[in-house]
């Protein structure tokens, strides 16, 4: 299982979005017509991120992908047996998501959640919009997301029971209480916390993209400062996944974390769940966006 793709509604696609997506992150935009979603590539997949210019900000959908057809069938069967109403996507919707098969359903806090199989690998190589070494995706998927929930404990249990996620660790700091979950070797693909720091129930707090080189992150940080992009958190290193990263505030009201060096969970038997009282080892100070 992996975080396969993400759909975000945005008020508008403006110069600030372009600076973050292309000047800092180096994503590749697929060709589009006026009014169509902006589909963004981060690797050999057709696309993994879609921005919809709807006139308002919010999460459109979160897409999780099974590694095999057998896993897709097993998870889908389990969802239906547990009373989750799953709708089969038609050919048009599967083409828009660039997957072989997909079902969608309502997840915790009303978030549209999708289960897919067979993400399209594009015939053309990924062409970053600035010189980078690319992103750490593959079996680990797009990256990770942190979302707030009205009932975090119930939401964590939902992902464990319905999609088979496992707890990586916990961090409680200031007003936040966060649980980190994994579904592949990435330390966490999903984190759930109580509503805080301006993030309401069902809202996206941040998306993390992991670079293949610390130099990509460093040069991206230089670009953020050169372009005056608001920082949510300055450069720093996390306690739990050991990611060295910084957080940019987007016009969509959520942050994008750009990082390198996150540790992985290779052996479930050997992994020890920890409880931390701080999210950072160093850095990650509040940026201009929250002064």
Automatic annotation (TrEMBL):
Keywords, alphabetical: Aromatic hydrocarbons catabolism, Dioxygenase, Iron, Metal-binding, Oxidoreductase
Gene3D superfamilies: 2,3-Dihydroxybiphenyl 1,2-Dioxygenase, domain 1
Cofactor(s) for this UniProt protein: Fe(2+)
GO molecular function: dioxygenase activity; ferrous iron binding
InterPro entries in the record: Glyas_Bleomycin-R_OHBP_Dase, Glyas_Fos-R_dOase_dom, VOC_core, Xdiol_ring_cleave_dOase_1/2
Pfam families recorded: BphC_D1, Glyoxalase
Keyword match Iron: yes
Residue ranges constituting the VOC domain according to the UniProt record: 2-118, 141-261
Cited CDD domains: BphC1-RGP6_C_like, BphC1-RGP6_N_like
Family stated for the protein in its record: Belongs to the extradiol ring-cleavage dioxygenase family.
Name assigned to this protein: 2,3-dihydroxybiphenyl 1,2-dioxygenase
Organism, as annotated: Alkalispirillum mobile
